[in-house]
From TrEMBL:
Name used for this protein in its record: EGF-like domain-containing protein
Domain of life: Eukaryota
GO molecular function: scavenger receptor activity
PANTHER family linked: EGF-LIKE DOMAIN-CONTAINING PROTEIN (PTHR24043:SF8), SCAVENGER RECEPTOR CLASS F (PTHR24043)
Bilayer-crossing regions: 121-146
Matching Gene3D superfamilies: Tie2 ligand-binding domain superfamily
UniProtKB keywords: EGF-like domain, Membrane, Transmembrane, Transmembrane helix
InterPro entries: MEGF10/SREC1/2-like (IPR042635)
């Protein structure tokens, strides 16, 4: 093979006609495999850069360059963010599913999967009962104080 045609061949280093190494691919092996390629060394095909071992959690595509949408996460983006994640589209981290904008009211935890014991409903209900009881107590005191002597 002559050097003139070598530049047209992807996946080889022209000077030595050797296959790409060190997680590189393409013409003269100048492109790096995606850091999101699965496996221990992020290996990819020396011609097209397609990942040999699939993608790390949170990524899609042959070169693993596409993160999951804001409402999915995990292996092959098959897991759905918790409905209790706050913010638009219940957005969560594409890798671990942790909620990006906190939780909706009444939930907490990194994935908003823990129901709060002291939700606003409980506080409002307790405030109503305490207020109602105090109101009856005050009204009773007034009636007793103003009643017949």
């Amino acid at each position: 093979m002559d050097d003139l045609n070598c530049g047209l061949r992807y996946g080889f280093i022209c000077e030595t006609y050797a296959a790409c190494t060190n997680n590189t691919f393409g013409a003269n092996c100048l492109e790096k495999c995606s850091p999101n390629c699965g496996g221990l060394n992020n290996a990819c095909d020396n011609f097209n850069g397609f990942c040999f071992n699939g993608c790390d959690d949170g990524y899609l595509g042959e070169r693993c360059g596409t993160p999951c949408t804001k409402s999915t996460f995990g292996t092959n983006c098959t897991e759905i963010c918790n409905i209790n994640c706050g913010g638009p589209q219940h957005a969560c981290n594409n890798v671990n599913g942790f909620c990006l904008y906190g939780c909706v009211e009444g939930y907490h935890g990194e994935r908003c999967d823990i129901k709060s014991e002291n939700s606003p409903f409980v506080f409002n209900f307790l405030a109503f009962i305490i207020g109602y009881t105090l109101g009856l107590l005050v009204l009773t005191c007034i009636i007793v104080a103003l009643g017949p002597k």
